[in-house]
Amino acid sequence: MEELDIPIFKKVYELYKLFYSYRNNISKQDRYTLWQKIETLVLEIIESILLASSVPKSDRLTILEKISLNLNKLRIFVRLAKEVRILDNQKYLVLQENIDEIGRQLGGWIKSTKTV
């Protein structure tokens, strides 16, 4: 599958695996509220990236803007998870670094789509 060669897809895929690896350390109460929302957002981003990679460039910008919105929601929810102490600082920093990198890649994709 060619979409699996897209760097942003690989990065978000790895991000989900990271969230998943943290899941068992999350209390049951938090796992089924905020944490579930966070995981769902990451999965939606994966789905949207696959969709954006398979549509004509003329249809791509709307999907990329939706991904950008979901990525911003993800940033806020991850920060909230740190502030309510679902995540410790070290895990938060690792996640935030990954989310920032995905944001940079997404920004580049949006920019290149706009110039076409």
Automatic annotation (TrEMBL):
CDD domains: Avd_like. It comes from the Bacteria. SUPFAM superfamilies: IVS-encoded protein-like (SSF158446). Residues 9-112 form the bAvd-like domain. This is bAvd-like domain-containing protein. It comes from Candidatus Yanofskybacteria bacterium RIFCSPHIGHO2_01_FULL_44_17.
